[in-house]
Amino acid sequence: MIDIDGKTAVLGLIGNPVEHTLSPLIHNTIAEVDGNNTAYLPFHVYDENVEMAIRGAGALGIKGLNVTVPHKKSVMPFLDDIDELAEKIGAVNTVVFRDGGCKGYNTDALGFIRELKEAGMCVEDRSVVVVGAGGAANAVVHALLSLNVREILLFNRSVEKAEKIFGDFKDVKIYPLEGWKGVLTGKYPCIQCTSVGLAPKVEVSPIEDEEFFEHIESVIDIIYRPAETKFMRLAGEHGAKVFNGLSMLLYQAVESYQLFTGEKVSDDAVKKAGKRLAEAVWKN
Predict the structure, then answer these.
(1) Per the confidence metrics, is the pTM higher than 0.70?
(2) If pLDDT is split at 50, 70 and 90, which confidence band does 282 have?
(3) CB 3.0 to 4.6 Å from 167: which of 46, 112, 128, 163, for a disulfide?
């Protein structure tokens, strides 16, 4: 239980929509376990009100905001400073307010790297399959490149869209979604970055050809609702190790909380938040 008083630091999330978010569960659990006087709330912000939300948060003394879809790019012009990694990714998911100004960060890539390590997926000097070229893929691709992969084989419904985003990356090879035939010859780690299969449309997968999954040895699907997507199920049926995006969600939040407060989150808080998160997802 968080006791709200005059010294409580307010944290939050802006997005559209935000009703489904699990971020308050994570951040408020961390505060509870570590004994921090913070409270985390979701704020539904429409596209045309992003600038007002940032200016208003600063004026109200809010200490930090997470940013979710569709505002991760549109928020950037209204920040006083942007971290180098967020600049490279071209998206901000964390805004920290300090000394009358605000700075943007991206913790999605850091959260993804922590999930990779937790899952035991070794990607160094390997070819890695990435499905999708949306906002999440940007953070994933930057994370993978920082881990010295040999190459990224990126499959997307629109090659043109993918090339606009990743066309200048020499280690990213771009193909149409069905272009895996003739390209995949062995077994690969795979990251599923599209929203296809997200609840409530759980009976679809961006790729459904059984032969594709014969080439997949392990999968992280960044979707976490449902806890098991059809993509994961198909991969698992062909012997792949499968993981959803729950750990990435948890660890990006931990990284954000540490930026907000300047304090390290305890292992106990991470474990407690992870347990509550898993219970919330599997319940649904």
Answers:
(1) yes
(2) confident
(3) 163
